[in-house]
Amino acid sequence: LRVGPNSQKLDRNKIVSFVQAEGRVRFDEFVKLDIDIERTLDRKKFDRYLSLGKISNVLPANEILINLNCAVENINAIHFNNAGILFFASNPMKYIPQAQVICALYKGIEKEKVLDRKDLTGDMITIIDEAVMFLEKHLNLSYEITGLQRKEILEIPETAIREAIVNAVCHRDYFEKGANVMVEIFDDRVEISNPGALPSGLSKEDFGKRSMTRNPVIASMLHRISYIEKMGTGITRMKKACREAG
Length: 246
Known about the structure:
Layout: E1 2-3, E2 6-7, H1 12-21, H2 37-40, H3 43-52, H4 61-67, E3 71-74, E4 77-80, H5 82-88, H6 92-95, E5 101-107, E6 113-120, H7 124-138, E7 141-146, E8 149-154, H8 158-171, E9 181-185, E10 190-193, H9 216-224, H10 234-245
Parallel strand pairs: 5-9
Antiparallel strand pairs: 1-2, 3-4, 5-6, 7-8, 9-10
């Protein structure tokens, strides 16, 4: 890399970070020219997404996918990009294996004895929902009786759990193929982590105050079905929910 009169040697990660920062490379926008969209598209996933997003199913599927920025037309053929694969392919992990989410329950406060583990390998929406279900299965419940109604109260608010998981899969660095999003439960805490640091241009002080995404197509897709807000309010809502829950 040449900067003014000086030259610097950058390793692979720094080169990728530099190009990403310049907005020239987005993993979710990469087009899969070798995939036949007609054989890869899972119609059930596609129809479910349209239903969640209240999108009219009057146009051909290919046109809707192009309008969603999940596919492109190239020489009279339609091809998925990586975002389209993650949401609509019949087997997303065949093409993007690093997208799986690993859920684990440990005994104690260290990673020593695993009591339960689940590797989530479906489409983006299924993975998010099943990760939330894993946490709901293993976290403690309390009950609040109001009149004749019994209300279940999770020890960590579902709002915070879902927001953290959605953020983890939406904003992870998918160029990093050697790591997965992790959802881990210990006796004293829950840790939800993803590969990749904060996007270039976003400081620790800005975290939770400014909206900046590493994968804009994925973020837009999740926003259409109300899984995320695009105004940078998620962290604030997580904090508020946890404070109210004590």
